[in-house]
Amino acid sequence: MNTNRKRKIRVEVRMTEDEHEVFLQRMRDVGMQNMDGFLRKMALTGYILRIDMSEVRETLRLLANATNNIKELFVQGIHITTFDLLRHSLIQMAIGAEKLCYFNFEQSRHM
Q1: Residue 21: pLDDT band with limits 50, 70, 90
Q2: CA 95, CA 63: separation in Å to the nearest integer?
Q3: For residues 71 and 77, what is the distance between their CA atoms, to the nearest angstrom?
Q4: With contact defined as beta carbons under 8 Å apart, do 68 and 61 qualify?
Q5: Measured between alpha carbons, how far is 85 from 49 in angstroms, rounded to an integer?
Q6: pLDDT tens, 53-96?
Q7: What's the CA gap between 47 and 40, in Å, rounded?
Q8: Which residues of 50-89 are buried (b: 16+ CB within 10 A; e: fewer)?
Q9: Coil, strand or helix: which one is 79?
Q10: Whole-number Cα distances in Å, 62 to 2, 72, 79, 92, 105
């Protein structure tokens, strides 16, 4: 037995097959794969938050695209002012945000 463990007390739980299926489904629902972590979190706090980061990832992707477009302008030797760079970036982000809002609106209509 590893004596360097932080958690040294072991707790066992017995379940019926039906209870075990519900338990596994709840783990899948919150996106957890570690049974110990799931049980500990539920026992100590009673809830698990799952945050949908898809909109943040999409915003970051759009920002990266705008940045790459600006870099490409420099590589091509196109001399532009800081104002032009800012305007171009804002336009790209606005287009992306508009697409994202439309996508979310369409999703909410079908719920």
Answers
A1: very high
A2: 11
A3: 10
A4: no
A5: 39
A6: 888 888 888 888 888 877 777 777 666 666 777 777 778 777 87
A7: 10
A8: eeeeeeeebeeebeeebeeebeeeeeeeeeeeeeeeeeee
A9: coil
A10: 47, 15, 23, 7, 19
Positive or negative: CA dihedral 73, 79, 82, 83? negative
> What is the percent of the chain where pLDDT is above 90?
8
- State the amino acid at position 58 in one-letter form: E
Question: Which residue stretches of the chain are H helix?
Answer: 17-30, 35-45, 54-75, 82-109
Q: How high does pLDDT run on average in the chain? A: 78
Q: Locate all alpha helices (DSSP H) within 46-81, ordered by sequence.
A: 54-75
Look at the alpha carbons of 95, 98, 102, 107 in this order and tell me if their dihedral is positive or negative: positive
Contact 30, 48 (CB under 8 A): yes
Region of residue 31 (left: phi > 0; alpha: psi -120 to 50; beta: else): left
